[in-house]
Amino acid sequence: MSYPAVAVVILSWNGKKFLEQFLPSLLKTTYTNTTFHVADNHSTDDSVEFLRKNFPSVNIIQIEKNYGFAKGYNVALKQVEADYYVLLNQDVEVTPDWIEPLAALMEKDKNIAACQPKLRAFHDKSSFEYAGAAGGFLDKHGYAFCRGRFFDTIEKDTGQYDTEIEIAWASGACLFIRSRLYHQLGGLDADFFAHFEEIDLCWRIKNARYSIKYCPASIVYHVGGGSLQHGNPKKTFLNYRNNLTAMVKNLPSDVVLART
Predict the structure, then answer these.
(1) What is the pTM of this model?
(2) Residue 5 carries which DSSP code?
(3) How many beta carbons lie within 10 A of that of residue 134, not counting itself?
(4) Residue 139 neighbours by CB distance under 10 Å
(5) Residue of 206, 212, 213 whose CA lies nearest to 250
(6) Which of 33, 59, 90, 135 lies at a CB distance of 3.0 to 4.6 Å from 3, suitable for a disulfide?
(7) Which residues contact 59 (CB under 8 A, 6 or more apart)?
(8) What digits encode the pLDDT tens for the residues 131-189?
């Protein structure tokens, strides 16, 4: 097997406690052609100094202002060269061999633009995690849901979703994507700031006739709510606004007009 270059990029804002907790697991990654990057989204804590002192093998990308999740990643990824990017949240614990199944999946089919691992909850490792679970889908009304999570119902992982399948969207908590297509399709929409931006990108990937996959052989553990907690009014506003914006952008115009 060839080992294409994989760049793991964490966008961090005031994330010292998460970096301290989760970078050690990341640095145990066994994939041989990996680089690790933390893009600091203009933190006001001492994250950068902490990284320099304690994790010298991690490349630091300093962003001059807090652009939010979407534009922050766009700015950072212009400075990273690799065959694949992994957009990884700062509050994710990985397993040592998490990259190998994702890379192998993408390498065997060049029409796969992006994929995600199985996301379990960090605080209940036998259960799926809200922000991705076993792959994302959209219902006919544009409502986003996941296998393993619907509304506030979270399933235990008993092997019921251990089959690799096509999905509608891959979670931004751990999004594995071809770098060429990320830039070709315009990356994340900066106007979204945060929330639903990965679904919009995946929708554009689908409209460009590429596929997106769920890879159950790779497992990571996500805390969730590391930047904005569930129930935060700003989080709710962004989710609803960005959901509607994504539908207007990506649905055929006759469908949008029929719904308005």
Answers:
(1) 0.93
(2) -
(3) 25
(4) 9
(5) 206
(6) 33
(7) 35, 36, 37, 38
(8) 999 999 999 888 899 999 988 899 999 999 999 999 999 999 999 999 999 999 999 99
